[in-house]
Write the structure tokens for this entry.
Amino acid sequence: MRKLIAALLLAGCAALQAWANTQETQTAPQPTPAEQKPADQKTGDQKSSEQAPPAPTYADQNTSKSAVPASRAATGPAVETTEFPLDKFQNFSAIAHGGPVPGTEADVHFYRAGDLVRTEGQVRLPSYYLTELTKLHSTSVNAHSCLQMGAPNVRSFPFFLPAPGNKYEITPVGEDTVDGHHVHVQDLIIHRSKLDDLSYRLYEADDLQGFPIKIENVKKQAWHWTIHYRNVRLEPQDRSLFIVPEKCESDADFKKVGPGGAAKPKAPAPKQ
């Protein structure tokens, strides 16, 4: 019984306090329009800047195609072609940062002349890779050796992706600004006849004839990577950059020999 009485008294006190607060709010003197106007005028610009939401950017968004902000919805229908959109950039140089696999975050100097791509780092020892895009093999060259490999150098990605039978689906996404360049953003899907599709987003700079100064993957279930290009120069390259030494070893000549794998000497022929 005592607990019930205490609960009722507590509830009554709470209700009384709430009623008092309501009455105080209703009876408090309100400022007149003349008194309120100067304050509103003084802080109007500040309020509008505080209340206005920031403009959406692609860096703040999920990079999947379905997550494109409504304010930057697709600006045109998808177009399918058999021409790889990056093939129109046959001669250029740039500094590339990032790549499609871990461990490719360092800057490399990038040169393209037709079907040849040269990539080199910033080490003191002269070294570079030459990739033949159509043959999909590369050559590693340094001051002491030369080695031919049966695969393109990873830093020449994505320019070695074209292949017979591929189809390229391009969907305009919108516009943005990247590193001070006004860009048109397009989603690229590469349909490969015998392999899975590849999906990338291209940020094509208007002042560089549409060169993609930024490329990123848009596949949700994949490691997210981005490639940035800066110091882009669309001009013919010095052909001496693409010279391969006459004497090169081939990685096909290297054989793995396991334990006991050494050739056994032949037994001497029996005497007659």
Notes: The longest helix spans residues 2-27. Residues 1-72, 257-264 have pLDDT under 50 and may be disordered. Helices lie at 2-27, 33-51. The longest strand covers residues 167-178.
